[in-house]
Every structure is written in C-alpha cells, then in structure tokens.
C-alpha cells in the first residue's frame, strides 16, 4: 500500500500553485515639479511686467511725437507769418512809400538843406 500512497502523492505534486506576483504599484508621475511651477510663475510675471513697461514706453514715445508735430506745425505757421511780414516790410521800405509818408507828415524836400556825406 505504500505504493498507492506514493502514486497519489505523485498525482498531487504536478499541480503547482503559481506564485502570486505582487501587484505593481503605479506611481503617478507629476507633470511638473514644484520648482518648475515656480519658475513658470516667475517667468509669467516677468513677461507681464516687461509687456507693461514696453506699452508704457511706446505711449510716452507717441505722446512726445505728437507734441513734436504740434510744435513743428506752430513753427511752420510762424515762419509763414514772418515771411509775410518780411514782404510787407520790404514793400513799405521803398523810397516812394517813405517819401509819401513824409509828405503826409508835412515834410518838404528842400535842395538847399541837403548835404552829401562821404
């Protein structure tokens, strides 16, 4: 009977239990580390501050250019007025006009009172 018991044992041995494999723990890999997040926030703030600075500088440049154009327009108008006045002066300073104005004031041309200076 010992043989029978051995045979029974032989039949039971081939059934080997498969070892239970430990479950793999999935670690959730973070997309960004905290350091990277801080760097992104600092870069975004720097970008915003730089953008505001550029816009304010452009606004100041625009205002300055506007003032320059207004001043240039005033200068041009004043130059035209000066040119017109210069033409009026040259017209009024002719000998004929001066002589007419002198006659209106009561001055007469007396040839005896004329002296030539060299």
Write a brief caption for the model.
The chain has 118 residues and is mainly α. Helix content is 68%, strand content 0%. The model has no long low-confidence stretch (mean pLDDT 84).
Describe the structure.
With 118 residues, the chain is mainly α. It contains three helices and no strands. It has helices at 2-12, 34-92, 95-104. The radius of gyration is 55 Å and the shape is rod-shaped.
Mind sketching the topology for me?
Blueprint: H1 2-12, H2 34-92, H3 95-104
C-alpha geometry? rod-shaped
| Biggest beta sheet summary | none
The helix fraction, in percent, is 55-70%
Low-confidence region ranges: none
pLDDT averaged residue by residue: 84
Order of helices and strands: HHH
Q: β content, as a range?
A: under 5%
Subcellular location: Cell membrane
Transmembrane segments: 38-56
Main location: membrane
Function: Essential cell division protein.
Short descriptors:
mainly alpha, Cell division protein FtsL, cell membrane, 118 residues, transmembrane helix, cell cycle, 3 helices, 68% helix
């Amino acid at each position: 009977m010992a043989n029978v018991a051995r045979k029974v044992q032989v039949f039971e041995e081939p059934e080997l239990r498969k070892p239970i494999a430990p479950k793999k723990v999935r670690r959730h890999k973070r997309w960004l580390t905290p350091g990277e997040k801080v760097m992104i926030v600092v870069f975004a703030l720097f970008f915003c501050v730089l953008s505001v600075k550029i816009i304010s500088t452009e606004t100041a440049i625009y205002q300055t250019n506007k003032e320059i154009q207004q001043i240039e327009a005033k200068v041009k108008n004043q130059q035209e007025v000066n040119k017109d006045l210069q033409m009026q002066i040259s017209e009024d300073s002719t000998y004929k006009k001066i002589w007419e104005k002198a006659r209106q004031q009561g001055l007469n041309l007396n040839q005896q009172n004329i002296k030539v200076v060299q």
